[in-house]
């Protein structure tokens, strides 16, 4: 195990917590840890000590590929003018009563 | 059933957690990383919470009007019944971790046994505390493995902690003779029966941590009868000063 130091801190792990069975895991924050089990314990002590959830995931932060601010335009803007991608765009036919 | 015997037996259980909890709380603000600082503070609070429940019941059994706070803050060192392992100074992180592990494994076995007590208050407290103590063992055990099997320095410090603390572990399993009626009545557990399981679990983790198990030589004893090391008085001076300076204070 490599000792932690201000110059060389332990790797960062992102923490995801599931508030209740069936819910999706949501991002809670991050912890420093030497390995997965250590990260799980630190996540438990930092983010799940007040009954916040029923399940934890820890993921090495380095394993996450994130979109960049420059991606915002090409990734997300084109959806703005495509109203037909939303169900509300379509009229419900007469005779359909369940909606 | 003599209430005095049950009171003493409950103090032995409660004082272990109170004194170890206070020692662990000394790390608050001093742990090597923020995450561990939070973890140690949580564990300290769990232990003090366990002590609160046990000493509350001890207070009821005694029936002398001494609350759990009075038992914690207004008893002298000779009235405490904790094992001496719990009162030793916190030392470095290796000492703290090894002690938490050695006592934690004992604690899980003891709570497990007490969860089968015929006394519903004792079994209820034990069932709640058992879950907490299982986590404490997991936390400390993982650290023992990482420190023992870590750098040359962490290995040396952890081995030194095991060697220094080992002679204080025997007391955990010395069954006090004044509890014979309580054990026979199914109220409390015979701690001497917990030793084989403790040995097996501790040896397994120490082996994985590449640490040597010291020989079972002479063991310290006395805490269960109120004979303590010089360290307990200093601990109590700090722990009790606020309550004694402001008797009856509310906050």
Describe this protein's structure.
- The complex is a heterodimer of chains A (99) and B (251).
- Chain A has 99 residues and is of the alpha+beta class.
- Chain A has a single domain (12-89), classed as Roll (Ubiquitin-like (UB roll)).
- Helices cover 17% and strands 20% of the residues of chain A.
- Chain A has a three-stranded antiparallel beta sheet with strand order 2-1-3.
- Chain B is an all-alpha fold and 251 residues long.
- Chain B has one domain: Ferritin (Up-down Bundle), CATH 1.20.1260.10.
- Chain B is built from nine helices and no strands.
- Chain B is globular.
- At the A-B interface, helix 1 of A face helix 2 and helix 5 of B.
List keywords for this structure.
heterodimer, A: 99 residues, alpha+beta, Ubiquitin-like (UB roll), three-stranded antiparallel β-sheet, 2 helices, 3 strands, 17% helix, elongated, B: 251 residues, mainly alpha, Ferritin, 9 helices, 63% helix, globular
Instruction: Find the biggest chain interface.
Output: A-B, 17 and 18 residues
Strand element count of chain A: 3
The CATH superfamily of chain A is: Phenylacetic acid degradation B
CATH architecture of chain B: Up-down Bundle
Whole-angstrom Rg of chain B = 18 Å
Number of strands of chain B: 0
What is the helix tally of chain A?
A: 2
CATH architecture of chain A: Roll
Helix residue percentage of chain A: 10-25%
Main sheet attributes: strand count, strand direction, barrel closure of chain B = none
> What would you call the structural class of chain B?
mainly alpha
CATH class of chain A, named: Alpha Beta
What average pLDDT do the residues of chain A reach? 87
């Amino acid at each position: 195990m490599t000792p932690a130091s201000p110059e060389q801190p332990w790797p960062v792990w992102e923490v995801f917590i599931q508030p209740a069975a069936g819910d999706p895991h949501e991002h809670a924050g991050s912890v420093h840890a030497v390995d997965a089990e250590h990260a799980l314990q630190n996540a438990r002590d930092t983010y799940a000590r007040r009954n916040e959830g029923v399940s934890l995931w820890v993921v090495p932060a380095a394993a996450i590929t994130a979109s960049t601010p420059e991606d915002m335009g090409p990734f997300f803007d084109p959806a703005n003018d495509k109203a037909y991608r939303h169900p509300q765009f379509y009229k419900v036919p007469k005779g359909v009563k369940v909606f | 059933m003599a209430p005095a015997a049950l009171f003493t037996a409950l103090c032995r259980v409660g004082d272990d957690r109170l004194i170890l909890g206070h020692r662990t709380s000394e790390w608050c603000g001093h742990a090597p990383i923020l995450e561990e600082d939070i973890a140690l503070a949580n564990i300290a609070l769990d232990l003090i919470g366990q002590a609160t429940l046990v000493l509350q019941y001890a207070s009821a059994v005694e029936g002398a009007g001494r609350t759990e706070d009075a038992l914690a803050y207004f008893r002298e060192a000779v009235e405490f019944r904790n094992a001496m392992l719990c009162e030793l100074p916190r030392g470095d992180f290796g000492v703290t971790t090894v002690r938490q592990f050695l006592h934690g494994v004992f604690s899980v076995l003891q709570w497990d046994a007490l969860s089968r007590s015929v006394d519903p208050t004792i079994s209820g407290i034990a069932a709640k505390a058992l879950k907490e103590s299982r986590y404490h063992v997991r936390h400390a055990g993982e650290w023992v493995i990482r420190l023992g099997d870590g750098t040359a320095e962490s290995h040396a410090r952890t081995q030194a902690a095991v060697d220094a603390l080992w002679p204080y572990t025997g007391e955990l399993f010395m069954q006090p003779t004044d509890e014979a009626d309580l054990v026979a009545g199914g109220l409390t557990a015979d701690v001497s029966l917990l030793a084989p399981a403790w040995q097996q679990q501790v040896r397994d983790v120490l082996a994985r941590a590449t640490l040597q198990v010291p020989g079972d030589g002479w063991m310290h004893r006395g805490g269960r009868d109120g004979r303590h090391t010089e360290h307990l008085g200093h601990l109590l001076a700090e722990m009790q000063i606020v309550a004694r300076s402001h008797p009856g204070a509310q906050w």
